[in-house]
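Following up on my earlier message about S-adenosylmethionine. Here are the inputs again, as you asked, copied directly from the submission form:
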Amino acid sequence: MADERHHCCPPRVGLRKRVFAKLYNKAMAKYEPYIADRKQVLFANLPDRVVEIGPGTGANLAYLPSGCRFIGIEPNPFMHDLLKQRGSELGVDMEFRLAKAEKLEFDDDSIEAVIGTLVLCSVAEPAQLLAEIRRILKPGGKFFFIEHVAAPGKSWLRFLQRVLRPIWKFVGDGCHPDRDTAQTIEAAGFTSVEIEEFTVPRGVLPRFVSPQISGVATR
Ligand SMILES: C[S@@+](CC[C@H](N)C(=O)[O-])C[C@H]1O[C@@H](n2cnc3c(N)ncnc32)[C@H](O)[C@@H]1O
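Thanks, got it. Here's what our run produced:
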């Protein structure tokens, strides 16, 4: 593990990733209870093998069906200890890979379900990642997601998101507050996409990440 951390990124970027991993659970302490009911419904029928992109500290492990084989693709090595710890507390049969999800080491048409929450805001190439998810899913396989997204076009909130983008990217490990992720998912070539928009209430997360979507994209 020490080696992975040393080689993952230049020292200053590594420091930012380490700080982000350390503070992440505290920052999400109100969000996870808030989003729990939505996750229960969204993840209700997961199969017995699930791939998660960017699992972070393992916020979604509690929603896996018992006996599920879990494969997490997590490029921040400083998240891995917490992920491992949560997985072993929950008795999850897990494997995780230190990799970016824009290139997924799975065969075509091989996976029934991919999940990802609050990840497409952070990846460098969201369209490429969605193409990879589509490639590895079996026909009829599903991608389940929750994402924070851009506020409507000319709103003050969209303006605020744009103004805050550089600083938020810096402190939030590459997170963009103003991505039109619904549009990117809809353009990714899935057979069907169901999306629900919702707004996280005040006090749970900063206002500029309150417009969110959840849904399912089917290959
Ligand atoms: C805001 S955190 C969300 C963590 C977790 N999914 C959750 O809901 O709490 C974003 C996560 O995406 C990961 N990430 C960033 N770029 C990625 C990429 N290219 N491929 C896979 N994961 C990535 C980060 O390391 C981080 O763990």
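One observation from looking it over: The chain has one domain: 2-218. Hope that helps, and feel free to reply on this thread.
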